[in-house]
Amino acid sequence: MNFSELLNIGLMQGFAGLSLFAVLLLMGLGLAIIFGQMGVINMAHGEFMTIGAYTIYLSSHLTELYAPGLKQIYFPFAVVLAFFFAFLLGWLVEWVLIRHLYKRALDTLLATWGISLAMQQCFRTFIGPKEVSPNLPDWLLDAWAPVPGLDIPRNGLFVLALTLFVTGAVLLALSKSRWGLRVRATVSNRMMANAIGIDTSKTDRLTFAIGCGIAGMAGAAFTTIGSTGPTSGQLYIVDSFLVVTFGGAASLLGTVVSAFGIAQTQSLAEFFLHGSMAKVLTLSLIVVILMMRPQGLFASKVRR
Amino acid sequence: MLTVTDLFVAYGQSEALHGISFVGNPNETVAIMGRNGMGKTTLFKSLMGILPTKSGSIQIDGREVTHDESFKRVAKGIAYVPQGRMIFPTLTVEENIQTGLENSKTRRIPDEIYALFPVLFEMKKRKGGNLSGGQQQQLAIARALVTEPKVLLLDEPTEGIQPSIIKDIAKALNEIRQLRKISIIVSEQVLSFAMDVADRLFVIEGGRLVMETTRANTDADKIKQYLSV
User: Fold this and answer.
1) Which residues is A266 bridged to in the sheet?
2) Distance CA B26, CA B64 (A)
3) In tens digits, what is the pLDDT along chain A, a chain of 304 residues?
4) How many domains does chain B have?
5) ipTM, 2 dp
6) Residue A277 in domain
7) Is position A156 within any domain?
8) Which of A196, A201, A252, A298 to mutate to test the interface with B (most CBs of B within 10 A)?
9) Is A195 in contact with B103 (Cβ distance < 8 A)?
10) Which of A142, B91, B102, B191 could covalently link to B95 via disulfide, CB atoms 3.0 to 4.6 Å apart?
């Protein structure tokens, strides 16, 4: 193995890591918003991701049945639809269940876990236990080979672009929009935010729904790199929590950095070691770093 | 204006306010004097909807707010500067003020606010949590003022603030009353500050208003007796 081959392998594994980074980041972003804003640990987050993934599959299936001509262009619309389905369901779950449990943080854990199980069973019963994959448009297949021996998969590029776009949009909305101001004020002091004129329960519902919507988009991204089954979300939920904790619960920038770190360590180690050993290595690193910095990588410095 | 009639507030079984009635008129400052634990903060929290009312009524400009959530009361014209200021420490000064613009169409902070508190303009990009106590107090007042209130509540605005700044705050409150002709209700333990700002003074003791005087007729010694432990 000469140097340029090694470099190519490094680049390709690095890129595989980037795809994982994309899904983890989208998942972590939604979790971080919900956890940071409301202190709700959303165990059903993975299932909202699965909803998004099934939405893509459904769109692909319907397109094939009724409008085969649209095969090349349905995908972006399906991504938007994935957001909205997950958003609507999130809105509903907050309204029916979560809002009654804000004063009992640990009970939300149990309640959302219950939702998670119920949703998984719904997927199994109504969609089927077998894993499914959408028919992706041609422009998402194959790889881009800038030099011989270096293959960068196009779906990975797409997922990365989508992630960067969504992350940018969320960060911008949080720092500049009125919704963002409401969210940050409510996070800072819920009672006072209400006493200065902010409708905090509406802010909560919208925020929960947006977090779930982003999970739906993570699901959409996920369909381009793996196949969807009833338990797909569950596989990602632990890693997503890891991303949020490692990054520092209150910091979205921390979420970005920690998703990147975890995904890259995992992906590069996987090539040189066994898959499980890669996991051991990643987790040990996280444990050691969290022992030294229990507040996570980033925590904002301010007198309180 | 603010009309409070026969207000009863309780923490579970234990009743803290036993029938409070008073009126805050437009272009008037009312001071509620009392020692710690006499019910000042409880009264303000219940006026703001943070604590539920057991019975009685609270009206702003003739409109009933007794059972409204806090944010709805703000829309109806009441604003709150809490004890301990409670500014949002992680937000910048500018953003802190903007949170009060929830019911306004623009997010532009009126020039008048910065004219009243020039120090906030100088610090508008700083995090609220990094301001001094006096500056935070001014920030909390500015944040309440941009909601365009008819009634402004201030709970112990001088607590933990150095004397020179207390004078500034008294001046600002008098200016605000003159400019906006609103009703200002302030709770206090410091008599000199209350005498600087208030037109009428009440004394609260054990959850009841036990004394009412105008500034001109105030018997300072008698009030001091109530305030001493």
Assistant:
1) none
2) 17
3) 677 877 877 777 777 778 888 888 988 888 888 887 778 888 999 999 999 999 999 998 888 888 787 778 888 899 999 999 999 999 999 999 988 888 887 888 899 999 999 999 999 998 888 888 888 877 777 777 777 777 778 888 888 888 999 999 998 998 889 999 999 999 888 899 999 999 999 999 999 999 999 999 999 988 888 888 888 888 888 888 888 888 876 677 888 888 888 888 888 887 778 778 888 888 888 888 888 887 777 765 554 4
4) 1
5) 0.90
6) no
7) yes
8) A196
9) no
10) B91
